[in-house]
Amino acid sequence: MSTQHINLQIDGMTCQACASRIEKVLNKKDFVANASVNFAGETAQVEYDDAQTTPEELMQIIQKTGYQAALKTSALPEMQPENANLWRSHWRTWLLLILAAPFMLGMVGMLFGVHTLMPPAWLQIALASIVQLWLAIPFYKSAIASVRGGLANMDVLVSIGTLAIYLYSIGMMLAGHPVHHVYFEAGVMVIAFVSLGKFLEERTKRGSLNSLGLMMQLTPRQVTVLRGTQWQPEKLENVQIGDTLRAVQGERIAADGVVLSGEAWADESHLTGESQPVYKTAGSKVLAGSILSGSVDYRAEQLGSNTLLGDMMNALADAQGSKAPIARLADKAAAVFVPTVLSIAALTFIATWLFTGSATKALVHAVAVLVVACPCALGLATPAAIMAGMGVAVRHGVWFKNAAAMEQAGHIDTVVLDKTGTLTQGKPDIAAIWTAPNISEDTLFQAAAAVEQHAVHPLAKAIVSHAAERGIAIPTATQPETEAGAGLQAQVAGIGLVKVGKPDFANLDMQAVWQQGQPENGQPENDIWQIASLVAVSINGEAAGAFALADPLKPDSAEAIARLHAHGIGVYILSGDNAATVSHIANALGIDSPHAHGNQSPRSKADFIAQLKAQGRSVAMVGDGINDAPALALADVGFAVRGSTDIAEHSADAVLVRQSVNQLADGIFIARATLKNIKQNLFFAFIYNILGIPLAAFGLLTPVIAGAMMAMSSVSVLGNALRLKKFQAR
After folding, report:
1. What are the two backbone dihedrals, phi and then psi, of residue 512, each rounded to the nearest 5 degrees?
2. How many Å apart are CA 218 and CA 213, to the nearest integer?
3. pLDDT tens digits, one per residue of 570-579
4. Cα–Cα 20 to 30 A to 673, which of 229, 309, 496, 525?
């Protein structure tokens, strides 16, 4: 079986019941491994066996259920139409509101005892007939298709309710009853309010989605390219990898690449979450979408979907289309909601008729029940919050691969961190220097750097780099000789025979160094000379000095740990490094010693994660290497640092773009805020129905007010989800 994955655009869904029905139909097929439909995003993700079916057949299945399906050629989100286009596309809504205006005027007059403002009978019939027999046709089509598909949607409720009250009013008029015994205004106003609600819902959804779609506008459509010896304007799609591009003050970078000349400050906040501009000069990497203060010429190395921006948007589109486990509550409710409401409406009609003897009251109460109970808000509650939360997370440099990962991150109470490359820089740096009494630091650097220029070890590179940073002139070294596992020696001009390597190789007694570096607290195991990598230097057979090299902490690691602790999250370190080094790092970060574990193998890391989970903890693991992959996969949520090994990123549920543990804290806090927002949305969705249905059943809501309440329920849920866009890291 060869499983393929496709993204489909679905048109025609009006509530969560529609999405649930499409899912149900698709998942019943043997050749569909999994189908997930996102009502808020109007998309479907389908995994299928391409040996048994095709995308065209899958789209036909969806179309038979009453909806339109189209293959999305790109996983990247489409830019939504501008508001002007949205307004034009809802011409029915504006016509409905115009036709409803006379009824609205009459209803306002009736509140003040003025009945003459209500339109005459012939005009009421004409306006109501235009609405019910023409403008309401989309509702009828959707309702019929829904019933044929075996699962009723909200349009069934609206269609039955408004058509019933329209036919009842026609019957009353034909029977010669006075105009105040008819309810044409109810049907017209309900259709108008429901349509207006859909417009507001779509407009608000686009407010949630456009923050993500606008990211696609971060790359310029036209760029300046070097053709031969001339700079020429070109469309971005004509640019090839290897082309030389120019970006000047205020322009955006069009491709991931390398600066060839010039200098500038680049705003990369939308990509990495780094709020401060980053300095760029020859040799610096630039990212598509970053905006410049300055001017650079750069070589294009990645274009389009292969850039960091494109990769981010692909990941985001997939994640937004996925479904969080908490959404199953809405799915289950939607599956039984409409039949339940129809039953309640029928009981309301019968009970009201029996107790009041008025068929008119019974019908009005039943219609109000049908209209107020629209399950739209229920279907929007989870996906709207997830989509908004995903956008916020991306802006803070955290990519969640799916909605389930984001939901689970909101429950995290324990974080396990790898050390190297996660908490630390991942490359050695000089932490301490010791010199013999007759040797200066400059002389020590000259001697060591001259010899280490012939080595390729990271420790050697760190020493040579520091010498260059100090502006020390490095003399020539000749006759280099390597003693395997011990060090390197050479004749250095103006100095003599220099040996660089292990203390024994360089005739250095480390006891003197340790005594000089002994900390006052009497804990030599935490002294840098006890735990660092040592490089000793001798000149002409005499010990000249030594360097202690260690992997330094990232600048924000301590702040990130403090933030996690402040929010009640336990923090552990698991590292393959020796226990003394791990203990030293833990002390520097404020992590309790029992929470710091060294000498960890990939298996022992995974076993430790399993033990924490067995204690009932929700565990996040952060790592960047192959040895972290098993633990990343076993954790409730695995976070890989961007630039990690492929297997680590593949095993993880989320990626930290800026290689900062602070972004981990941001990701967890954003997920918590999103989960809280989902619960609030579900409360709003349920409370409208819990309060609205009984009020309507007892005649305390007219169909018109019920329609307005139904519209407001969806808008309130979406408005609450949009509050996530204001999230501020703390």
Report:
1. -65, -40
2. 10
3. 999 988 777 8
4. 309
Query: Which residue has tokens 């649930």?
Result: 20
Of 626, 572, 635, nearest to 601 by C-alpha is 626
Tell me how far CA of residue 560 lies from CA of 339, 553, 583, 588, in angstroms: 51, 12, 18, 13
Tell me if 505 sits within 8 A of 483, measured CB to CB: yes
* Pair 145, 114 in one domain: yes
Tell me, what's the pLDDT at 523?
Answer: 42
Active site residue 418: yes
Q: Check if the beta carbon of residue 288 is closer than 8 Å to that of residue 308.
A: yes
Using CA atoms of 388, 394, 398, 401 in order, give the dihedral in degrees to the nearest 10: 70
- Considering the domain architecture, whether residues 196 and 326 belong to the same structural domain is answered as yes
Q: Which long-range contacts (CB under 8 A, 24 or more apart) does 530-534 make?
A: 530/580, 531/578, 531/580, 531/581, 531/584, 532/431, 532/432, 533/428, 533/459, 534/502, 534/503, 534/510
Strand partners, 424: 553
Count of other CB atoms within 10 angstroms of residue 239: 17
CATH of the domain at 534: 3.40.1110.10
Longest distance between any two alpha carbons in the chain, whole Å: 122
Q: What is the predicted pLDDT for the residue at 665?
A: 93
Amino acid at 361: K
- H or E stretch covering 683: helix 661-697
- Residue for token digits 């204690």? 615
Q: Where are the alpha helices (DSSP H) in 453-574?
A: 458-469, 510-516, 528-531, 557-566
- Lowest-pLDDT range, 210-214, 449-453, 685-689? 210-214
**Each residue of 462-488: pLDDT tens digit?**
899 999 989 999 999 999 888 877 889
CA distance 11 to 656: 34
Set 243, 297, 418, 666: catalytic member: 418
Residue that has been written with the tokens 């290689």 in this structure: 659
Q: Contact at 8 Å (CB) between 362 and 347? A: no
Which tokens belong to 61?
A: 């299945």
DSSP, collapsed to helix, strand or coil, labels residue 177 as coil
Distance CA(133)–CA(142), nearest Å, equals: 15
**Quick one: which of 403, 480, 418, 467 has its CA closest to 441?**
467
Residue 726 CB neighbours (<10 A): 7
Report the pLDDT averaged over residues 384-398. 85
> Is there a single domain that holds both residue 437 and residue 545?
yes
Q: How far apart are CA 452 and CA 164, in angstroms?
A: 91
| Exposure string over 503-528, b if 16+ CB within 10 A, otherwise e | bebbebebeebeeebeeeeeeeebbe
The torsion angle over the Cα atoms of residues 191, 194, 196 and 200, rounded to 10 degrees, is -170
DSSP string, 36-74: EEETTTTEEEEEEETTT--HHHHHHHHHHTT-EEEE-S-
Euclidean distance between CA atoms 625 and 47, whole angstroms: 30
Give the E-state strand segments of 65-148 in sequence order. Answer: 68-71
**Strand, coil or helix: 728:** coil
> Count of CB atoms within 10 A of residue 230's CB?
7
User: pLDDT tier at 181 (50, 70, 90 boundaries)?
Assistant: low
CATH number, residue 50: 3.30.70.100
Residue at which a domain ends, from 260, 281, 311: 311
3-state secondary structure (DSSP) of residue 150: coil
Report d(CA 451, CA 164) in Å as an integer.
Answer: 94
**Torsions phi, psi of 271, nearest 5?**
-105, -45
Residues for the chain: how many in total?
730
